[in-house]
Amino acid sequence: MTSSWWTPDRHADRRPFLLARARIKSAIRTWFETQGFIEVDTACLQVSPGNETHLHAFKTQLIGTDLSSRDLYLHTSPEFSMKKLLAAGEEKIFTFAPCFRNREHGAAHAPEFTMLEWYRANETYDTVAADSAAVLKLACATTGQRLVSWRGATADPAREPERLTVAHAFTRHTGIDLLSRLGAGFDACDGLAAMAHRAGVTARDGETWSDIFARVLAALIEPKLGIGQPTLLVEYPTSEAALARPCAHNPRLAERFELYCCGLELANGFGELIDAKVQRVNLEAQMSERQRIYSECYPIDEDFIAAVAQMPPASGCALGFDRLVMLATGATRINQVVWTPYVDGCQTPFRGV
């Protein structure tokens, strides 16, 4: 019979990774605090779990003393709460937040995980992008990892990240001229589908421009990012950045970046959108698409929309802390670096090591 993660032999195998996790968390805390950040704690139960089309939440019920009930959700990210704190007047905040996403299982995915998220008021998204690279470098320095690897790819986390636009990445790795096919109309979608097919990704019936974009990115581009050195992938199409503000030089693009290392996505950051009317439109569009695909959608948090209208200019970043620890320790599965990992019931073999 396969032993559970809490049996002494399994725990002994995982314990070096877990002790390294604690050291990394302590080092990151110190790094943020020395820069004047305040650590905050955000509630997990929310009116809305987040409004991204393809993120799946856990739903529960709040039952009052009068036995009345209302639906609540475990958040998929602390983003809404953190931005409310910015609206309240906080300027530099960070958190290690438990997050919950359904339908996510695998070597680098778990239904419950830890998100390191931080925000800087009145700072550019270039600043938080630099933060994310510094956090990666710090984590690996804490464990003494000069080189990191994931699924055969290797990188030096201390090297300056390559800054690569999404459009350039599409051209370099697929030959697709993405900027010529930006848009939501049939022509744009049909044109992107044709280009994707020539690159080796065939569009499925009913797929939108965003669907095709995401599949090309995941299949042909992401595995090639962060090889040798980290990569900052920047300037996403605005359709792929519902919470980010448009770029000043091209409103079809948004101030969104992602940090990759060894083909693994570690962080996702924005120059934050602070136009409440546009924010509502973006989130409603995301939920309309979710309703079309999954026949369900999540509520819009009206309190969040109100807070967006009061937010200062700001930038923020969400970094998968467990993935960071995996890279910094040489772990190959997320279960190895989580103190009490979730497994699918007692009949599922534990693959923690």
Please describe what this structure looks like:
The structure is a single chain. By secondary structure, this protein is α+β, with helices and mostly antiparallel strands. The protein has nine helices and 13 strands. The chain has helices at 8-34, 79-88, 125-143, 166-174, 186-199, 209-221, 276-294, 302-310, 321-329, and strands spanning 38-39, 45-46, 58-63, 69-74, 92-100, 112-121, 148-150, 153-155, 162-165, 231-237, 253-261, 264-271, 314-320. Strand 3 (58-63) and strand 4 form a beta hairpin.
Strand order of the largest sheet: 1-5-6-13-12-11-10-9
Please give the alpha-carbon distance between the first and last residues: 16 Å
Number of helices: 9
For the sheet with most strands, the description reads: 8 strands, mixed
Number of strands: 13
Mean pLDDT: 94
Integer-rounded radius of gyration = 20 Å
Shape summary: globular
Low-pLDDT parts are 344-350
Beta fraction of the residues? 15-25%
Derived structural class = alpha+beta
> Share of helix among residues?
25-40%
**Element order, helices and strands?**
HEEEEHEEHEEEHHHEEEHHEH
Q: Summarize this, please?
A:
With 353 residues, the chain is of the alpha+beta class. Helices cover 37% and strands 22% of the residues. An 8-stranded mixed sheet has the order 1-5-6-13-12-11-10-9, with helices on both faces. A 3-stranded antiparallel sheet has the order 2-4-3, with no helix packed on it. The chain has a two-stranded antiparallel ribbon with strand order 7-8.
